[in-house]
Amino acid sequence: MATIDGPVPCDPKNTTTTLGFFSHDIPCLCIVVAIISCYGFVINRMIRSQNVLQASSMTESQVAKKKANAIRTRKNAVTLGLIIAVSLVAVLPRTMLVFSLYMGNTSAITGTLALIFNNFFLLLNPVVDPVIYVLRIKKYRQYLLCKCLKNNSVTDATNSTAVS
């Protein structure tokens, strides 16, 4: 039936409709704000629990455990802070863009540019989150650091065997 009217142009369709705005963008914003609030509450509790544990008569092993716990808590707080920042950067600009397009302010942003920004912000969080979690693992951080700072030993080994 659609081919009777002739070919359909390949222009990208603007998905910022009222239905899309109310069915996806506003709930997404609400969920992200709820997640950020929970993470913020967890970070606050983690920091407060570290400050409460003050004991003067502790053995050396207890002091070492307390230091290790403090370091782990600080790393966890940094990770949660990065997740909060990525969530804010990924969701808030997209929601503001969709809201401005919904309100009719399309003079500054064309449909194609809005689609590009929309897709970029939509994919930012799922792309960056695994990187954050992988970089938390010390073994992978050291491996990436070694690969970035050292010469590629595989090519050196193949060149020396080819010459001999």
Automatic annotation (TrEMBL):
The organism's place on the tree of life at top rank = Eukaryota
Keyword Mitochondrion on entry: no
GO molecular-function annotation terms? G protein-coupled receptor activity
What is the protein's major site of localization?
membrane
Record's GO cellular component, any one? plasma membrane
Q: SUPFAM superfamilies of this UniProt entry?
A: Family A G protein-coupled receptor-like (SSF81321)
Whose protein is this, by species?
Mytilus galloprovincialis
PANTHER family per UniProt: G-PROTEIN COUPLED RECEPTORS FAMILY 1 PROFILE DOMAIN-CONTAINING PROTEIN (PTHR24249:SF372), HISTAMINE RECEPTOR-RELATED G-PROTEIN COUPLED RECEPTOR (PTHR24249)
G-protein coupled receptors family 1 profile domain residues are: 1-133
Q: How does it sit in the membrane?
A: Multi-pass membrane protein
Q: What is this protein called?
A: G-protein coupled receptors family 1 profile domain-containing protein
The protein's location, in the record's own words, is:
Cell membrane
The transmembrane segments are 21-42, 77-102, 108-135
Q: Which UniProt keywords apply?
A: Cell membrane, G-protein coupled receptor, Membrane, Receptor, Transducer, Transmembrane, Transmembrane helix
